[in-house]
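Researcher: For the annotation table, I need structure tokens for Sulfotransferase domain-containing protein. Please keep the output clean. Sequence:
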Amino acid sequence: MSGLRLIASYPKSGNTWLRAFLASHLRGGQPIDLNADLARIGTLTSRSLQDLHAGLEHADLMPPEVALLRPLTSRRIAQEQPGLYKTHDSNLVPPGAGEPAIPADAIDRAVYIVRDPRDVAISAAHHFGWSLAVSVDRMADASFRLGHSSTRLNVNVEQWVSSWSAHVESWLDAGDLHLLPLRYEDLLADPLEGFTQLCRFLELDDTRPAVGRSLEACSFSALAGQETRTGFRERYHASTAPFFRAGGAGGWRTALAPELAERLVAEQGRVMARLGYR
């Protein structure tokens, strides 16, 4: 394998579920340790990984300097440490940079998972400790980024996320990438079919018995139960709920105020319609 194989998504769209499945699948369908085995699908923006391949500490850099450096570092990781990685980066050119943080020539292939933004808004609010109104605001914010804090050193370097619609289309419309788009709702409705497709795309064992074993090992109840017993390192420090909180689809119908749902449709409706979200 050469190059980066990405599991890309807007935050809170199902990325961790895919990583948990792949971590189990790479172990022959065995149960996983959330706090150890997810590292088999690393986080591309991990500060330690980025520092190692950049040859310097990103903590010494300003955001525009990070944006300029990241394409170079992505290419180095693709060459020196290729494999499966998670990312929440958009496929857009950040302010101050000349190309996306992960250039197309560093990517072997990418899986892009998308979720109904009304459910994303609820999940993100719980994860980041925001109000639902703030969550809806963030999803329309073209300047939204992760990994930057004025009060604490983040475990990840800065990622340019942008708005939900811009993020989604930056990946779906990247004609120079070998891309597999997946809808979270379709994976829930028919996980065996969806994850078989995922395995085939990533050139992993796509036989139904093997996929079924891995799905059972990373069921929502199994992951939520493990978080309850041992905790989960990736749970955000300001979170107001467990990381594995609900894991379903359509919760926005009862959890999201009508005016906020209407705002999301007004702001994200064109891309929602493109993806079949009514």
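Researcher: And a one-line annotation?
Model: The beta strands are 4-9, 42-43, 83-87, 107-114, 145-146, 159-160, 179-183.
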